[in-house]
Amino acid sequence: MTAASPPRIARRLSQSYATAWSRFRHWPWRPDLGASLVVFLVALPLSLGIAVASGAPVEAGIIAAVIGGIVVGVLGGVPLQVSGPAAGLTAVVAELVFLYGWRVTCFITLASGVVQILLGLSRLARAAMAISPAVIHGMLAGIGITIVLSQLHVLLGGDPFTSARANLLELPGQLTAHIPAAAIVGLGTVALTVLWPILPRPLNLVPPPLAAVTVMTLVSLPMALPRVSLPTELLSSLALPELPDSQWGAILLAILTVALVASVESLLSAMAVDRMHEGPPGDLNRELIGQGAANTLSGLAGGLPVTGVIVRSTTNVLTGARTRGSAILHGIWIAIFALALVPVVRQIPLAALAGLLVVIGFRLAVSWAHMRTLARHGELVVYLVTLLGVVLLNLLQGILLGIAAALLFALHRALHAPVQVVSPENTTASWRVVVAGNLTFLSLPRLARQLATIPAGSRVCLELLVDYLDHAAYEMLDNWIRSHERGGGDVFIDEVASPVFSSIRAGRPPRGRASQAPVPRWLAPWSRWQSACHREGVDQLLTGVDEFHRRTAPLILDVLGELKDGQEPSTLFLTCSDSRVVPNVITSSGPGDLFTVRNLGPLVPGPHVVGDSTLAAVEYALDVLRVRTIVVCGHSGCGAMTALLASAQDRSAMPSVDGWLRHGLPSVQRARRVHCDQNPVDQLGRLNVVQQLENLRRLPAVQRAEAEGRLRLVGMMFEIGNGTALILDEVTGQFAPAGPGRSTPTGQNGFSPAEPDRLAETDQDEPVP
């Protein structure tokens, strides 16, 4: 056997490399491999710092990071979420360690994991969404302040105290002391963590926490500073949890606290991660089971509590992770690092980790965007109550105070009806009393004060925008109305929302809230809402205009202001003048959307007609307004179609109608060639839509616009009885309901597009039969 020549060996090596690279490129975990390395670099210093801040052994943070990454990565329901020790539980764990010792705290972590598993099996994960965001953000801000107050002492070379209040009171003395070397390292870590992202590439590609801790560790090597204490053999530090000797009531409360906070933080992080990628939403109940399993194992192995961590999860998504493999791999990298590089971890000064935690705590505590949002929604008080409760009391009491405040605000909004009295602009106008929301006995003092300001003998319009009246509120209103009328006054009751008051007066009080909201007045006909409150001698039209000024105009004032200098409608809407067809209602459009042309039937004269208003509107819409769509809309039960099917003698007394309907003759001729069992008027209405589209396409303005590719023609049929708008498919010739994802039905309620006979390219001028 002869030895292979060097060129042949080179070719084989090249082919082997190409094969290996090709397999690696198509390896399903390849994107996860890169993402896991970045998440590992972010998670390692944070895990160490959180362990130190919690008063736990440093190895507890590493154990929790490994178990959180691997166990939740395998069992969790949100694949891209990364779990591990989180800053949100730092204050809780620190207090537990101080009160009960580390091994009992491990038992509490284990038991809280079991509680989480039971919650997940009970499918209660979605209940976390019922907690007010103001409470959540207030809790995180309070935790952030607690972390900052405790770690400032470590950063300045001192020792933290057991409570946030003690840390705050002792901080001035710490600040006035001399600045030790620890302070230099801690402040340097803070500065590097904040400023590192603005450095040029490739430096800013390194995660700021890792870069800051690494640099300041190197700077601190010549200094005599307290450093991370880590056993040589990490596995030897694993210890079983210890059962408490007493205080089981307090222990059970601590278990529920850890389970609640860890669950809420994990689920909120999971919902945020779901919004960051395009994949299917995660299973929150499975995620809660995974988090519980991780906490059970972490407590058993001597680790910190585990939660879903938004910082690591965000990093995971942004660096291209595709599957749960990234979270699993990140846990493996931490385990390898901890086992192989214990001497390196021992060189990290505690002041550097304290500086890192000060930055994290400050970012938790200060979120101006959340505060502005809560202030706009009137929930800033709930946020502040929760924050102060967490800082001045403890985490659980702060959360309970926040939930109580949120419930009180919700109760106040639900039961307190706004009452407004508007004085008349002149002596002939009426006083207006506007009552909105739910009117209950809680609102009666305010209502009584407002009603007392109305002079006796005056005319009053009582506008009720309520959907619930309790018995006390009804009695008060009814007694005041009767008393005011006995004094020579006049009270006009206008029930804008549900007719709750009149139903109670008629002896039919509704049970609870109104089951269905009434049709808004800008959509309902006058007969629906003016019949009960129409005042004698006032025209329905003027009443409608007054209603527009009072309620509708304020809603669209901004839109009208934008349209005051011109219009840019996108659609020309050709339809019948029938009062039952309201184009803006059918199309859910508003001012400035539709350029509407209405006449007796949706008819389009031929191009030889000069001076016709319909043709003028078409030309103006296309050449001046540059509309992109023309809709021809017929409707069921059309009077124009009925007149077309009648005899000429029936129209002899209406010469103008007879002359206009001449343009519908081609539609009648088309109908004679189609046999259908449906209503002949509605059949003619559908065929007329098709015919008018053909008439439009013979107009020069339409031909130019279609040739330029800027116009689309749409045929529509509005079924009045069932409120359905049907759209014409010109390929199949069928009308089908509009809507995304709906296929066009064939062979029903339509006509054949393969109809052989076509009308000539000119209008028919013979008399209408």
UniProtKB/TrEMBL annotation:
<feature type="transmembrane region" description="Helical">
    <location>
        <begin position="33"/>
        <end position="53"/>
    </location>
</feature>
<comment type="similarity">
    <text>Belongs to the beta-class carbonic anhydrase family.</text>
</comment>
<feature type="transmembrane region" description="Helical">
    <location>
        <begin position="351"/>
        <end position="369"/>
    </location>
</feature>
<keyword id="KW-0472">Membrane</keyword>
<feature type="transmembrane region" description="Helical">
    <location>
        <begin position="60"/>
        <end position="80"/>
    </location>
</feature>
<keyword id="KW-0862">Zinc</keyword>
<dbReference type="GO" id="GO:0004089">
    <property type="term" value="F:carbonate dehydratase activity"/>
</dbReference>
<keyword id="KW-0456">Lyase</keyword>
<feature type="transmembrane region" description="Helical">
    <location>
        <begin position="100"/>
        <end position="122"/>
    </location>
</feature>
<dbReference type="GO" id="GO:0008270">
    <property type="term" value="F:zinc ion binding"/>
</dbReference>
<dbReference type="InterPro" id="IPR001765">
    <property type="entry name" value="Carbonic_anhydrase"/>
</dbReference>
<feature type="domain" description="SLC26A/SulP transporter">
    <location>
        <begin position="32"/>
        <end position="385"/>
    </location>
</feature>
<feature type="transmembrane region" description="Helical">
    <location>
        <begin position="210"/>
        <end position="228"/>
    </location>
</feature>
<dbReference type="GO" id="GO:0055085">
    <property type="term" value="P:transmembrane transport"/>
</dbReference>
<keyword id="KW-0479">Metal-binding</keyword>
<dbReference type="InterPro" id="IPR036874">
    <property type="entry name" value="Carbonic_anhydrase_sf"/>
</dbReference>
<feature type="transmembrane region" description="Helical">
    <location>
        <begin position="134"/>
        <end position="155"/>
    </location>
</feature>
<dbReference type="GO" id="GO:0015976">
    <property type="term" value="P:carbon utilization"/>
</dbReference>
<keyword id="KW-1133">Transmembrane helix</keyword>
<dbReference type="InterPro" id="IPR015892">
    <property type="entry name" value="Carbonic_anhydrase_CS"/>
</dbReference>
<feature type="binding site">
    <location>
        <position position="635"/>
    </location>
    <ligand>
        <name>Zn(2+)</name>
    </ligand>
</feature>
<dbReference type="Pfam" id="PF00484">
    <property type="entry name" value="Pro_CA"/>
</dbReference>
<dbReference type="Pfam" id="PF00916">
    <property type="entry name" value="Sulfate_transp"/>
</dbReference>
<dbReference type="InterPro" id="IPR001902">
    <property type="entry name" value="SLC26A/SulP_fam"/>
</dbReference>
<dbReference type="GO" id="GO:0016020">
    <property type="term" value="C:membrane"/>
</dbReference>
<dbReference type="InterPro" id="IPR011547">
    <property type="entry name" value="SLC26A/SulP_dom"/>
</dbReference>
<protein>
    <recommendedName>
        <fullName>carbonic anhydrase</fullName>
        <ecNumber>4.2.1.1</ecNumber>
    </recommendedName>
</protein>
<feature type="binding site">
    <location>
        <position position="578"/>
    </location>
    <ligand>
        <name>Zn(2+)</name>
    </ligand>
</feature>
<feature type="transmembrane region" description="Helical">
    <location>
        <begin position="381"/>
        <end position="411"/>
    </location>
</feature>
<feature type="transmembrane region" description="Helical">
    <location>
        <begin position="175"/>
        <end position="198"/>
    </location>
</feature>
<feature type="transmembrane region" description="Helical">
    <location>
        <begin position="248"/>
        <end position="268"/>
    </location>
</feature>
<comment type="function">
    <text>Catalyzes the reversible hydration of carbon dioxide to form bicarbonate.</text>
</comment>
<feature type="region of interest" description="Disordered">
    <location>
        <begin position="736"/>
        <end position="769"/>
    </location>
</feature>
<keyword id="KW-0812">Transmembrane</keyword>
<feature type="binding site">
    <location>
        <position position="638"/>
    </location>
    <ligand>
        <name>Zn(2+)</name>
    </ligand>
</feature>
<feature type="transmembrane region" description="Helical">
    <location>
        <begin position="327"/>
        <end position="345"/>
    </location>
</feature>
<feature type="binding site">
    <location>
        <position position="576"/>
    </location>
    <ligand>
        <name>Zn(2+)</name>
    </ligand>
</feature>
